[in-house]
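Entry details:
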Amino acid sequence: MSVVIEIQLPVNALTQHQTSLSVLIERAASGDTQAFEQIMILTQQRVMAMTWRMLGNDADARDAAQEVYLRVYKHLGRFRQDQDLFAWLYRITVNVCRDFSRKRQNHGKRFLPMGGSAEVEALSLAVDEIGAEEVLLQAQRRQLITRAMATLPHKERMSLILRDLEGLPTDEVARIMKSSPATVRSQISSARKKIRIYCEKYLKERSGKNSHEL
C-alpha cells in the first residue's frame, strides 16, 4: 500500500562515507566537539526518521532524538571501529524509543498519527506530477497504515520499521532487538498481517457507512 524509493550510493561512496565517520568518531571520542557535531549532521536525518516512525509525533520524536545523541556522546568510548555506526545508532534509538513509549503509557498518552510540515511539503510538490486526487489517496493510505501501526505491540512495530522501512537485514534487526532472526521474521509477519486486517476492516466499515448514507 506504500512505495519506498531509495537512492543507492555507489559502493566507493559508501566506503568513503563509513571511513569519514570512523575518523570523526575517533576524534569525537577524544573530546573533539566539532567532530561530534559533524556526526550529528551526517546521521540526524536517519535518527529523526526512526524516532518519528516509532513514536508517531514530532514533539516526542525530537525529544527522543536529543536523548539518543546524549547517550551516543556518553558512550562514544564503547564504540568499536569494526562496528557499523548506523547499526549502533539504531540500537541506541530503539532503546530510547522503548523508554519513551513506557513513559508515555505510564502517563496515559497514546501513539499519535504521524504528520508535519515536511510531509505536507512533499505532498504539495507531488501534486504537479501525479495529480491532486492521487496525492490525496496516497496521503489517506499513509495515514491509515500509520493508524494500523499504532495498534501493533512495541516489538512488532520496531521490527517492522527496522526491516521494511529502514531496509536493514533480518540478522541485523535481530542483533539490534537482541532477539533471533526467526523471532524477527515471525514478528514482521504478524505485524504485516495485523496491518492488513486493520486496513481491510477500516475500509469495510467505511464502505458500509457510505452505503447507508446514500
